Structure formats: C-alpha cells, structure tokens
C-alpha cells in the first residue's frame, strides 16, 4: 500500500520536475540568443605591413625611429650596396658608349670601286641598324642594374606609423626577413578571439556591437565588418574571427588592448 | 525517440529506487548521465552504430604561393571575395623581369638584323647558318625571360571560389612556398571525420548513409560516405582514418571548420 502510494507520488513529482525543467530551460536559451553574442577581442591596426628586402645585404642606414609617422615614398632603410652602385655607373657608361657608336656609324664611310672609279659610300644599313639596337640593349641593361640597386632601398608603401624596427645598422638583412613593421595606428579595429561556432550563426556583417574597452573603462559603439569564412581552433574550441570597426576612434587606444564585445542586441 | 526512452528509464529507475531510499533527487542526474553516455560507445560490439567527430570542409581548396622571391605591388582581393578561375589575386613587382625581357628582345633584333645583312650580301652558307642558329638561341632566351615574367608576376585563382585568408599586404616580400592566399570553393561542403579509430574503419563502406549533427546549427542532416582514406593518420596516439561524407542536401549557414558529429547507419 505504502509502496504504490509512494510510487504514484514519485511519478508525479518526477514528471513535474522534468516538465518544469523543459519549460524553464527553453526560455533561458532563447533569452541568451536574444541578448547578443559576447566575445573577447583585441585591438589591431586596420592595416599592417611587414616589410623586408628581396635582396640580402648589410644595413647601412635606418632613417626612421619607432613611432615615426611616415608618408608613402619615404626612405626607411638603406642597404650598403657599393657593388650595385658601381654596376649602375658602369651600365650608364656602357649606354653612352653605345650611343656614341651608333652616331659614328651614321658618319662612317667605306671605299667602293665601281668601273675603275672610287666612291665613298655609307655603311650598310644593317650595320647602322644593329648599332641602334645595341643602344636599346644597353638601355635595358641599365634598367636591370637600376632595378637591382632599387632593391637595396626600402621605401614606405603607404602612409602609416613605424610600429617596430627589427634591424640595426651594420646587421645583415636576409631576403624576405621582416625588418620593419608599419601599421595604421590611427585606425584600429577589433578582432574577436573566442567567438564560438555555436554563436557565429547569429552574427551578420553589418550588426551593431558594443565594445567595452577594459583599459579605458569605456564602451564604444561599433559595427561588424567581416566574418572569417574559416574557423580557427583555440584550445580545442572551434572559433571564428569576427572583425569589428569602431564608429569613432579614441585617442588612447593602443594596438593589443583587450575588449569585451557584445554583438547584436 | 531516444528522449522518450531516456525519460521512461529515469522514471522507472526512480520508481524502483523510491521505496529503497529516500534520497531520490540525487538519483536523477546520475541516471541521466549514464544514459546519455552510452550511445557514444565505440568498442562495445558490432551491434551498435559507429560515431565520430568531424569537421566541415569545402569540396575544393587551395593554398596558393609564389614560386620565387619578390615584392608585392597589388593585392586585388580581400577575405570573403568571390573570384573566378583565372582572376589575378596578387601582383608582384616586375621591373627587373620586364627589363630582362626588353634586353632579350633587343638581342633578338640585333641577331635578326645580322641575318638580313648576311642574306643581302649573299654570304656563304656556313656563315648564314651560324647567324640563323644565333637567332634561334636568342629566341629561346627571350621565351625563357617571357615565361619567367608570366610565372613570377602574378598569383592566379586556379578555380572559382571564395578568398578565405589573405596573408600578404602591398610592399611585403614573398618567398617561394609561403602561403599568401587560401582559396576555397564554398558553394558546397563536405564532412571529414577527425577521430574515427582503426577499429571502426573496417565497418565503414562507401555509399553507406550516416546522420550528421551540426552543433552550430543545432540540427541533423543526412549524408553518404564518399571516400574512406587508405592511409592512416595519428591523433594523440590513436590511429585514425579520415572518412569523407557528402551531404544529401547542402545545409545553409555552414562555414569551413565547423564541427559535427557523424553517426554511421547500420
């Protein structure tokens, strides 16, 4: 008797519990989806250029310092390349020689005997033609040497700030080694680092976001501008990088500062 | 169906334990935990279905790099751009290569002028042959310079697809083999298992159907085994084989790298 009573009671209790759990659990999940996606993020420049040389050589001069603002075309680092400099000088001289030679061929005359009389005639036209072609050849050779010499100078590709310099005068620069990093430090944006695959489906490009900057204790409005099409794996979690642009730039922001982002409220 | 079984099992267990003990509430989580663990058994006999973790990948992907050292002048694409086969993605500085082509062209012209000259003078055959051979030699050098310019100046999309990663900026240098662009055909995705053990791989056949649960979309899809890898890889000491599955119907909202659980049907 007690047994059957107990059984019924337990049954009702359990059923009630399960139902309650289901009912409560569902709105809780729904609410979290509605409340926006939260993620940790880090500030990075909108553009980063990690520059290096194509050629190798000793560094002769570093003309900028970390923190300098540079304009497109500014010289950053020069390699010591006397051989390349002399090669250009030699090619320039070779071009002048070829030009003079072509000129000379025009005035050159050969003796020709016809019917017992002596004529002075111009050089064959092919000889002059070949001398002209030799000028073009010397011109191209000069361009090659100039291009080689140009590789010894590192120029600023576009306006930015010198973020870091990884080489000093007298050091050897290898081809493709990053010697200087330029960045657009006045245009920082945010990249999420732990936005899970479960949340990525509710994030769209164009979504508005709130960025809480811990270092400044300020919240800045922002907008999602890109979602990575490929996942990264961070500590076993599948995450997607979402890039967010600030509506306005704050002066005190620094590259690498952390932020908490809430996307799409 | 599974849920119903689960609830009935819970209730039955509760009811049974109810009279013996008064600590009923603690029994609930224990039993639920046990039940939800059982489907993922992978060695408890051949009667059960095989499960594996998997990852979503595009049907075709390419990690593109240059064949030579060079300096980038233009990056024409950014992440997310759709490109067509043959589109130029990245361009290198070609000043040097162009000057070399120019020099070779001038050399060729000079050699050709020499041949014309000898022909007009009606020179003997031997000298003419020598000049002709010289033209051929220089033509070959020009072809080589042109081929170098074509091959080392641009990075071209090998197939229609989406730019998934760009690891290069204008004015940066590239080295041979350095991956600068990752391209994927994101119009259709496949599934690749990551932890299917050697003990289970023998039971998987091509054309076998499977149920695919995608965590990010929180829904199930059906698929078919397209390929079973013939070579193993290791995953933390386990010998595993990659099984590739096609979706019977492509779900929307998939992204490269999302995780999935695959349950192979009997």
What descriptors fit this protein?
heterodimer, A: about 260 residues, alpha+beta, six-stranded antiparallel barrel, four-stranded antiparallel β-sheet, 4 helices, 18 strands, about 35% helix, elongated, B: about 270 residues, about 30% strand
3D architecture notes:
The complex is a heterodimer of chains A (265) and B (266). With 265 residues, chain A is an alpha+beta fold. Chain A is built from four helices and 18 strands. Chain A has helices at 2-34, 82-107, 125-150, 197-200; strands at 37-45, 48-52, 57-62, 69-70, 75-80, 109-114, 117-122, 153-155, 160-165, 172-173, 178-183, 188-192, 208-213, 218-227, 232-234, 237-239, 242-246, 258-263. Chain B has five helices and 17 strands. In chain B, strands 1-10-16-13-12-17 form a six-stranded antiparallel barrel. A four-stranded antiparallel beta sheet of chain B has the order 2-9-7-4, with no helix packed on it. In chain B, β12 and β13 form a beta hairpin. Chain B starts with a helix and ends with a strand. Mean pLDDT of chain B is 83; it is low at 18-46. Classes of the chains: A alpha+beta (265), B alpha+beta (266). At the A-B interface, α1, β2, α3 and α4 of A face α1, α3, β7 and β8 of B.
